[in-house]
What does this fold into?
Amino acid sequence: MRADCPVSALPLPGFRPGEPLPASLDALLDALAGAVRSAVGDEPFAVVGYSSDGLLAHAVAERVGARAVVLLDSRPLDAYRAADSERLLAGLAARADYLDDIRLTAMGGYLRLLAGVSPQPHGRPTLLVTAAEREAEPLAPWPLPHAEVSAPGDHFTLIEEHAETTAKAVGTWLAELGQLASPVQSRPGTGSYAWAAARSAAAHHPRLCPPYHRPACCGSCSRNTAFAPTGY
It folds into this structure.
């Protein structure tokens, strides 16, 4: 994505030693909104959320005036069945080298914040990128109007070995969206949209601004985007 437009990453508080977790969802969304505004300035942009962080991306979009929302295999938490949760936990266990007690505790705290959250309509164009590889029946759909594309990989590999394909799917949709909208002035080489990505600590990978979490990741990856580590 960064070859086509600036991408900024917004780390969530609570994933490093000594960092407190947000006291409430509103406090978190206010903090994210401020960080997004600082990252993108006056440029038109989209927000992107991976997994449970799609709920954050969708919720913050209205606060920051995002042109569009991209959800990478995101659903409200109540859409997950017991078998789905078991597979997600198995996927996390396979990536245990990237996790520690602090990050696992933070993930649990964010899942509690997001429990029961239902996305509210805001009228912004929304794309759901679903993982093509599933062992069971598809999850319940995103409950609001949206476009949908399927990309190779499962919930985790969607942003790991299949990261390039996923990014192309997102870029194609944003480009088509830009062609349908009025012309947008942007800096040379930035494309029509900056990509503000709310991303999950449980699924960071070096290909897409990783890891569960490398200390240097946010500084080395953020050129002009936003991602938030949490959840599955």
User: Anything to note?
Assistant: The CA atoms of residues 48 and 197 lie 4 Å apart. The first strand starts at residue 7 and ends at 9. The longest helix spans residues 163-180. Confidence is low (pLDDT under 50) at residues 180-232.
